[in-house]
Amino acid sequence: MKEVVAGIDIGGTNTVIGILDRAGNTLGEETISTRDFPDALEYAQALCAKIRMLLGFLQEEVELKGVGIGAPNGNFYSGSIEQAPNLLWKGTVPLARWIEAEMQVPCVLTNDANAAALGEMLFGAARGMKHFVLITIGTGLGSGIVVDGKLIYGHDGFAGEIGHALVRPGGRICTCGRRGCLETYVSARGIRETLGEMLIESSQESQLATIPLRELTVKDIHQAADRGDQVAIRTLAETGNILGEKLADSVNYTSPEAFIITGGIAHAGELLFGPCRASLEHHLLNIYRGKVKLMASELIERNAGLMGAAALIWEELAKVNL
Amino acid sequence: MKEVVAGIDIGGTNTVIGILDRAGNTLGEETISTRDFPDALEYAQALCAKIRMLLGFLQEEVELKGVGIGAPNGNFYSGSIEQAPNLLWKGTVPLARWIEAEMQVPCVLTNDANAAALGEMLFGAARGMKHFVLITIGTGLGSGIVVDGKLIYGHDGFAGEIGHALVRPGGRICTCGRRGCLETYVSARGIRETLGEMLIESSQESQLATIPLRELTVKDIHQAADRGDQVAIRTLAETGNILGEKLADSVNYTSPEAFIITGGIAHAGELLFGPCRASLEHHLLNIYRGKVKLMASELIERNAGLMGAAALIWEELAKVNL
To answer: Per the CB < 8 Å rule, is B254 touching A152?
Structure first.
């Protein structure tokens, strides 16, 4: 019988559930709204129901070997989602334990950016790399750090929070309560705020000035830039600048071969990547210059998080069988 | 026959050469002046001569199994010292290869802070820890980062340069040519500069005002502080503050259980550690609060770098024998 796993990619808005084989092929996939479930236990039951439904749809007989999950503030060690500011559930949600109990197969859970990093390492832009950092830019800025071919978890499971490293001490207020975190400049909200500042200061016309700032999406901004809107172009350049500056600082810790950027903003292409690459190189310590690559995700249309979550449980199953 | 290794701890001023057994006991030790050797090859020959001399002094018959070296800008992958700003030799010095050729035993080399981190992990304050960061404060600020019980080297061998991470963008000029690096504030030179600023701004009397600033040592400053000199006390507190701020930022990368501080400044005790601990805790992201320890080296009188360099070659020898 063919062996498969379920991968689950939890986002603040949507959750994607997939059935994947060992090679990373998706045999079936469903999306539910994360926000439809204010009760975490009901959400877990809904995930299990979707997994059973997807398995039932398959033409061939399969055996479910395990479940892998990528979630905001997911803790690999505890299998729980802990104090996630962008999810409805407060405190600690022991999601992996609940799903193990319900499905009677092993379940592992990690941070969503960690899952995406694993996906890129096995199937995407980081194939063959042993040292890299994945940066995912969405509502916030997440990061997954890989050293010697392994994800870093740290002593408590929470390593890799570059979004909350400071880039402007005393700068913009962050959802974490502090000031100047990278994600207050480089995230959907941060980019919108930079655009707002540019619109106020600029004497140039912009189509974006006609849209209420709160309704503006990252997509609106990079599409306007593609059409030649100068304010949008400068917003992306400034975002790239500040991201490059902090990535250069990050190199001092784990000295990665590359940064892989994912999230909707990666569609902005060279309008973001060009300034970011120049800023990264400019701010690097001399011994690192000319060595560090900046790349877009290769899985942006394929869901690196889902593929990584599935890869994570395959890895855990392999350890058990050693 | 008893098996021993040679450990070498290279500093900008002095080099310590020791013969150590497997348990980390030093059977013999010699110090030479690093600056006496403008020619790197002559320096390597002097090291080999000292190793032979120390072996000759031992009462019992021993077998030299290998040589381990900790050096500023030491690269584990290449076995070379590369572009070290605080040493006389320019460019790349293939020290490990030279010593292997001369002594006919394996030789490994790493960054001096990495060697000290290994020493603390095996014999000092980090015993039993799997995730910690060693910070060594001397002429500059070095760091060795341990994740899952292993030193991080990164893709090029240069991971762990926290001294060159930015703490004050646009701030003091660094020897690396950039501005605002941590070591421009937290190092012998940085502390002296902070003291100078305090002396200028302060209306308080200080015994230190009678000593030319360039001649002041870190020891002078912490000894004055111990005697109650208010300017010296405030200098140590400000140094602790800014170090704590950047250590909090560092937690976002590898989430260590502890920071271990070494170098002469560690003698300053709670006058430095108290403000540093408070600042670290204050600046941490909420998920890390109350979890990260700040500790002094336990090997400050025993040379963690030498013990770590010896431990490094024992580790490499064990790998070869697997």
So the answer is: yes
Q: Is B257 on the interface with A (CB under 8 A)?
A: yes
Q: What is the Cα–Cα distance from B221 to B239, expressed in whole angstroms? A: 12
Structural domains in chain A, CATH included, are 2-112+302-320 (3.30.420.40), 128-296 (3.30.420.40)
SS3 of residue A24 by DSSP: coil
A250 vs B: CB within 8 A:
yes
Count of other CB atoms within 10 angstroms of residue B169: 15
Q: Which residues of B201-222 are buried (b: 16+ CB within 10 A; e: fewer)?
A: eeeeebebeeeeeeebebebbb
Amino acid at position B240, single letter: G
Tokens standing for residue A226: 């593609």
Q: Which tokens hold the place of B15?
A: 């080099």
- Say whether B165 and A254 touch across the interface (CB within 8 A): no
A207 in B contact zone (CB under 8 Å): no
Q: Output phi, psi for B103, to 5 deg.
A: -95, -15
Amino acid letter for position A85: P
Nearest chain A residue to B258 by CA distance is A155
d(CA A257, CA A133): 8
Q: Which of A160, A73, A120, A86 is nearest to A266 (CA)?
A: A120
* Residue with tokens 């002469």, as numbered in its chain: B264
CB atoms within 10 A of CB B93: 24
Sheet holding B2-10, edge to edge: B26-33, B14-20, B2-10, B62-71, B107-111
Whether the model clears a pTM of 0.90, i.e. scores above it, the answer is yes
B322: pLDDT confidence band, cut at 50, 70 and 90? low
DSSP of A152-216: ---SSS----GGGSBSSTT-SB-TTS-B-BGGGTSSHHHHHHHHHHHHHH--S--GGGGS-GGG-
Q: What is the pLDDT of residue A301?
A: 78
What letter does residue B35 receive in the DSSP assignment?
G
Banded model confidence at residue B321, pLDDT cuts 50, 70, 90: low
Residue to substitute from A78, A183, A287, A293, interface B, most B β-carbons within 10 A: A287
